[in-house]
Specification:
Elements: E1 3-7, E2 21-22, E3 25-32, H1 35-51, E4 55-61, H2 64-77, E5 83-86, H3 91-96, H4 113-118, E6 120-121, E7 124-125, E8 128-133, E9 136-140, H5 141-147, H6 165-172, E10 174-175, E11 191-196, H7 202-212, E12 218-219, E13 222-223, H8 229-243, H9 251-254, H10 260-266, E14 270-275, H11 280-286, E15 291-295, E16 305-314, H12 321-331, H13 334-342, E17 347-348, H14 354-363, H15 369-376, E18 379-381, H16 388-403, H17 409-423
Parallel strand pairs: 1-4, 3-4, 3-5, 11-14, 16-18
Antiparallel strand pairs: 2-3, 5-16, 6-7, 8-16, 8-17, 9-14, 9-15, 10-11, 12-13
Helix pairs in contact: 1-13, 7-8, 13-14, 16-17
Subcellular location: Cell envelope
Keywords: Signal, Transport
Protein name: Sugar ABC transporter substrate-binding protein
């Protein structure tokens, strides 16, 4: 049995090609970006190799910061891994250009339906669901109890009618003198604790506000957010939480540090942290206070959140398709997915393994039901399309300026949409 974890040393300029055949043994390479989940795959592939003695699986770990620059270069050079992780923003380009193998595995009825839908394009499934995440509200139990806030009942409304969230966020935001943001002598220049994690974080924050206000982000593969009044209204509300109401950290801090709000929450300096199960481990390890999970915020159109998933796709250029398909089938089975679930790393893409994830967190005293309820409720689609990542990259600096308050929201969205749609042109 041989399971290797290879950290690709980017400074060396080397790429590790797809697997090789050595005598009567075949090596299949598997690439991903998450170090913690890589450990679960080691366990999974060890069991696979015991059942398939002629196949070894080598796990390649490429950090997220470099993943999406390495992958296209390796695909172009023909040195991509046999199987690799992808997200919805990137797989469409490779599917449309013939770089992926279609998934024909008969186990698909046992996979998380929403993730199957995300990775189905042109009537063909291109990835085996590996994990999924939805959005819920982490909260500091001591802080919400002191403020008399029930995080499970919070509703936001851009009109102000029935809005219980903004008043709660004001109560939970405190300056160094101990004055909360709902008091007349509150000093927004000396905030020591924030109420909420409003920031340029589309998955955890922005798209959920858009969806729960009845807005959209795309029309087909094109971006349409500037054309939708409900979308503009929702983003204006989020930006105002930062720059007008001062209940969230400055975008000057969060634009350049995607982990800033997580850090503030685990430090006890943020009361409400809307995010996904991908931060459960971080909160568990970093928070020294009692915390819990509540449903994500409810908006005028109800409780609507993003469900996203990661899938494993196979290179069409793999030199040993049969072995690659055996590995794909394994990671699409309950036995193959169980190490990811049982370690509490993520909701697995295989439904039969999901109870292992729920049980892990139950034993830690955490009820993950809000995440499951969000996934089973009304959802908002994460952007898809063959060039959606290029569009998002083009829009990012404009949207960041908007979150800083340097561009009015309608103008910022209009400029960002134009840049994004130009970037996705063939």
């Amino acid at each position: 049995m041989r399971v290797l974890v290879v950290l690709l040393l980017l400074l060396s300029g080397c790429s590790i090609a797809g697997g090789a055949t050595d005598g009567d043994r075949t090596t299949v390479t598997f690439r991903l970006w998450d170090e913690q989940v890589a450990k679960a795959y080691e366990e999974s592939f060890a069991a696979f190799e015991q059942r398939n003695t002629g196949i070894d699986v080598t796990v390649q770990l490429v950090p997220w910061a470099d993943y999406w620059t390495k992958l296209p270069a390796d695909i172009a050079a023909g040195t991509a891994a046999d199987i690799f992780w992808t997200n919805t923003s990137n797989y469409g380009l490779y599917a449309d250009s013939g770089h992926l193998l279609p998934i024909t595995d008969g186990q698909r009825s046992g996979w998380t339906r929403s993730v199957v839908d995300l990775y189905t394009r042109g009537g063909t499934l291109w990835g085996v669901p590996q994990l999924w995440d939805s959005i819920a509200l982490f909260y500091n139990k001591e802080l919400v109890e002191q403020a008399g806030v029930d995080p499970a009942t919070l509703t936001w409304n851009p009109s102000g009618n029935g809005d219980t969230f903004l008043p709660a966020a004001r109560k939970l935001t405190v300056d160094r003198a101990g004055k909360s943001a709902d008091q007349s002598d509150f000093n927004p220049g000396t905030i020591s604790r924030y109420g909420f994690n409003a920031s340029f974080d589309s998955q955890a924050v922005g798209w959920n506000f858009v969806g729960s206000n009845g807005g959209t982000w795309q029309n087909g593969d094109a971006f349409d957010y500037a054309d939708q009044p409900k979308t503009v209204e929702a983003i204006q509300y989020v930006v105002d939480l930062i720059n007008k109401h001062h209940v969230a950290p400055s975008a000057a801090d969060t634009n350049t540090n995607g982990d800033k709000t997580l850090q503030l929450f685990t430090q006890g300096r943020l009361a409400l942290f809307q995010s996904g199960p991908y931060h459960l481990k971080n909160v568990q390890e970093g928070a020294k206070f009692r915390w819990g999970l509540a449903p994500l915020l409810t908006g005028p159109s109800g409780r609507v959140g993003v469900v996203h998933g990661v899938a494993a796709v196979a290179s069409a250029k793999t030199p040993h398709r049969e072995a690659t398909e055996k590995v794909l089938s394994w990671i699409g089975s309950a036995d193959g997915a169980r190490p990811i679930a049982a370690g509490g790393f993520a909701f697995p893409g295989v439904v039969a393994a999901e109870p292992d994830f729920t049980e892990y967190w139950r034993q830690q005293g955490v009820d993950v039901t809000p995440f499951r309820d969000a996934a089973n409720g009304v959802t908002f689609p994460a952007p898809v399309g063959p060039r959606v990542q290029a569009g998002a990259t083009a829009a990012q600096p404009i949207l960041q300026q908007m979150f800083l308050g340097r561009l009015p929201v309608p103008d910022g969205l209009r400029q960002a949409q134009a840049a994004a749609n130009k970037a996705i042109e063939p």
